Amino acid sequence: MIGDLGAVDATALAALVAAGEVTPSELLDAALAAVEARNPALNAVVLVQEGVARKAIAEGLPPGPFRGVPFLIKDLGAEARDFPSHNGSRLFANTVYAQDSAIFTRMKATGVVTFGRTTAPEGGIGAATEAVVYGGPTRNPWNLDHTPGGSSGGAGAAVAAGIVAMAHGSDGGGSVRIPASSCGLFGFKPTRARLPDGPYAGEGWAGMAIDGFLTRSVRDTAVMLDACEGPDLGAPYVAPPLVRGHAAAISRPPRRLRVGICDTTFTGAPIHPEVAEAVRAAGRLLESLGHRVEPARPQADVGMMMRAWTDIVGIGTALSIRSKLGDRPPRPDEVEGVGRGAWAHAQTLHPTRYLEAVGEIHAFGRQMAGFFDQGPEVLLSATLAEPPARIGRFSHDTEDYVGFRTGPDGIFAYSPFCAVFNASGQPAASLPLGRSSAGLPIGIHLAAEFGQDELLISLCAEIERAAPWAGKRAPMAG
Questions:
Q1: Fewest Cβ atoms nearer than 10 Å: which of 146, 183, 255, 311?
Q2: Residue 404 contacts residue 411 (beta carbons within 8 Å)
Q3: Which CATH number goes with the domain that contains 393?
Q4: What are the Amidase domain coordinates in residue numbering (predicted)?
């Protein structure tokens, strides 16, 4: 078992350490051996810092809930003094930090043994992870011809391959939930501002981006969320307070809920038939558990939201590039095509567009709040409109940034559900309940009202007990 960190979850590994049945050093040995054996095919784990991990063990790990468990942080955000970062980009390769971010400090306090980073697409843009700075695409352990998703694609691949039992990610338009769906994992996006952004950022993408975790079990996510939640010093706004906490919430099922089910996109367009059937099967499962399941589709301006999202992220990308290059355009040897396209798109926008777009995002959030206030307590849909895409389909070669996002074959057509809840700020999760005829994972998406993280994660835990997925593992994981 020590040689297979995907056989059990992080909570179980920590219990073995606490019982003296395995040491943190032995678990780290196993994780590094798995990197050596599996990562050449995946290209998911980068910037390994074995010495930092060994030193942390030798100096004594914090007595947290995951003491001794090997851990990886995404190579985008999670700033840490001992972990240089490429941030998915040649322009930011080998960035070093003067201090730890609040989220890294809180993750470290759980006792995890962080030993490296995982791949991310340049700028965190996209539903695939194929950044040039890592020398090639990151691949899916279920089928190497397919993407593990993005932008936390390396994290998803590493967990699904059994290299680690859980990993850090982040989600600005589905970037935890898309890899969770693609890799057969659990991914939970908390309510806006539930986790800290400082001190390197006041907020991510106008409040749409937030950290998260890729895990094999609901309980691992719940415990890590409890360890990391709450504002950091100087946070511009905070999430509604929790009542009992995520871990306490999963100790018992929620009350019977009104669940809206949508087996199309939120604009009524059809999705892949196998994915639609997986949604309906999840609806039947919820009905069998006593929940009231009825058809529902948000009456919100999704098109407006996606245009605003695209402009905000384009402006954010341009700002990031400007921090390195000033006002000159990025060259192809510095920034990939989509990033250059985002920079160029931002130059076409009126100076007032950013605030206008933020206002549209806020208006959309109010529309979604109204839908939940008058309708279902939980909305059930697919996570992605089809099974995991093939490698290369969402390459960053193109400079058509807007088409890459919103074109007929773009990211939003492929992933029309996730970004909705980044814009609204609501908690949302992807559960690994489906499988395509080709054997690829299909994620099922659940979302709840703003601030109702505990209710949502309690429902996720009830579903996990009713339809366990722990035994469903990628062939590469053994």
A1: 255
A2: yes
A3: 3.90.1300.10
A4: 26-456
Do 104 and 79 contact (CB within 8 A), yes or no? yes
Contact 457, 191 (CB under 8 A): no
Q: Which token pair is 281?
A: 């099967």
**Which amino acid would we find at residue 20?**
G
Residue 189 in contact with residue 429, Cβ under 8 Å?
A: yes
Of the residues 151, 152, 170, 424, which is catalytic? 151
Provide the b/e sequence for 47-84 (b: ≥16 CB within 10 Å).
bbbeebbeebeeeebeebbbbbbbbbbbbbbbbbebbe
Structure confidence by residue, pLDDT tens digits, 74-117: 999 999 999 999 999 999 999 999 999 999 999 999 999 999 99
Domain contains 338: no
Q: Is residue 133 part of a domain?
A: yes
CA separation for the pair 445, 313 (Å, rounded): 23
Which one of the listed residues 170, 175, 320, 415 is annotated catalytic?
175
> What's at 305, amino acid-wise?
M
Q: Indicate if 25 belongs to the active site.
A: no
Q: Judge whether residue 1 has pLDDT over 60.
A: no
Query: What range defines the domain where residue 407 resides?
Result: 10-300+359-477
Digit-coded pLDDT (tens) for 413-444: 999 999 999 999 999 999 999 999 999 999 99
Cα separation, 140 vs 475, in Å, equals 11
395 is catalytic: no
| Among candidate residues 211, 214, 221, the one with its CA nearest the CA of residue 181 | 214
**Residues whose CB falls within 8 Å of the CB of residue 390, separated by 6 or more in sequence, listed in order:** 145, 146, 147
Q: What SS3 class is residue 438? A: coil
pTM: 0.98
Give the span between the Cα atoms of 11 and 120, in whole angstroms.
26
Tokens of residue 109, six digits: 């306090």
Strand ordering across the sheet containing 378-382: 166-171, 210-215, 186-189, 428-435, 441-448, 378-382, 258-261, 292-295
74 catalytic, yes or no? yes
